[in-house]
Amino acid sequence: MLLPIKPICRSNRIKKDGTAPIFLQYCYSRTKRTLLSTGIAVPPEYWQRKHLRISPQLPPQFGDASKLNDELLRQKRLVEDLVAEATKKQIEDKGAFVKKTFTPTLDLQSLDERVTVVAKQETVKKEAKQDIYYQFDEYIKTKERKVSKATLTVYGNVKAHLQAFEKYRQEKISFASFDFNFYHDFIDYLTFEHVHIRRQEVLTGLKLNTIGKTIKHLRGFIKDRVKRKIIAPIDLTDFKIPEEECDAIYLSHQEIATIYQTDLSGHPHLIEYRDLFVLACLTGLRFSDFSTLKPEDLQRDMLYKKQEKSDHWVIIPLREEAKHIFTRQFRERIPALTNPEFNRHIKTIGKLAGLNRSIKFSYKKGNKSIEVIKPKYDWITSHTARRSFCTNEFLAGTPVELIMKISGHKRTKDFYKYIRISPEEAANKIKELWIKRDGMRLVQTDTKIVLSKDINN
């Protein structure tokens, strides 16, 4: 059985003078221990491991064995006193406390003062670790090598929303804050009061799906801290994730072709953006993936790309136009882009292509439905390309399982969120299938259908 506190000689750390340091080993649990330097060193052959002491035969040039053993005993008792103080003051991490407090020169008279200082430091440190924003930063650190940069940005936004809410209601948020009242007030704040940053005009309130994303990641953060036993379990039953079907456009193959054939000779700086957007429409790649394509990603007329968001490999066959764009325009390099810059330019391109039809969408803000009417080109974003690819392939009859292999979607539920067809398009698609199947007729003979017989016969 291990002794809680005992001196040991580290013979694997022999110095140039042939001596090895002696430490006090403090075992503060079955699996955890810490080493405390005594400042004493002797040749390892003069350490009596069985008796835990220095041999009386120690050559004089290394010190007096009797006095050195007495010093080891004094220091051991000092560590025992420190452990007793840590227990008295109910310090959880006794190992860290003892290691931080102990020094070979510490005397009993200054022990109380030293213990008080370190205990206060440990209390401050413990309180800091319970700070929600400290823990959020720690949570983000654990995710840095597992999720995309875009997802890390979302985590940062969730933290910023909490800080803004804290400032708004002038009440510090702690883990104890998370109850139904907090959830209700937080949703209300995000819906009506939250002020958008980095906007020229003052905008307040977030869309329902953005609020839902905030709650989703807040729940994930809290569950992670509970699983790691950093905080006590929290009932999140009432923390529902609000969401609504997202209104968004897609571009038909004809509209994509129109964009591709638009004359941009008067706007040569837009050609790269136009071609990259068309390439994305024909491959279904996200901005984070199509903006980082490399020449070696093209093999045997197919793109081999590891998706940044899902860390999932996809293999995408290239249409002739997509292959032509990649080999002609982007074989050597993809221009350095930012998503806002890309979105701004492709809206201009959509306008030049004549995509001017007015589109009306609505979204929820509390119990109100807010309608927004803009020309179609003004609804285009980088994500329109991925949505267009999925919708066009779906309408063309490509099996959903095959589309998902290219889009990288892992769940059918998530895939169908990308399908953007109007009720009229759905009706026309069904009609087309019926015509191919049976010519829109139920009975394929000239015999008249007798629906009923005379009930008297």
Automatic annotation (TrEMBL):
Superkingdom of the organism of origin: Bacteria
Annotated ranges, domain Tyr recombinase: 246-431
InterPro entries, per the entry: Arm-DNA-bind_5, DNA_brk_join_enz, Integrase-like_cat_sf, Integrase_catalytic, Integrase_recombinase_N, SAM-like_dom, Tyrosine_recombinase_XerCD
Pfam family, one: Arm-DNA-bind_5
Chain coiled-coil ranges: none
Keyword Acyltransferase: no
Key words of the record: DNA recombination, DNA-binding
Family note: Belongs to the 'phage' integrase family.
Annotated protein name in UniProt: Site-specific integrase
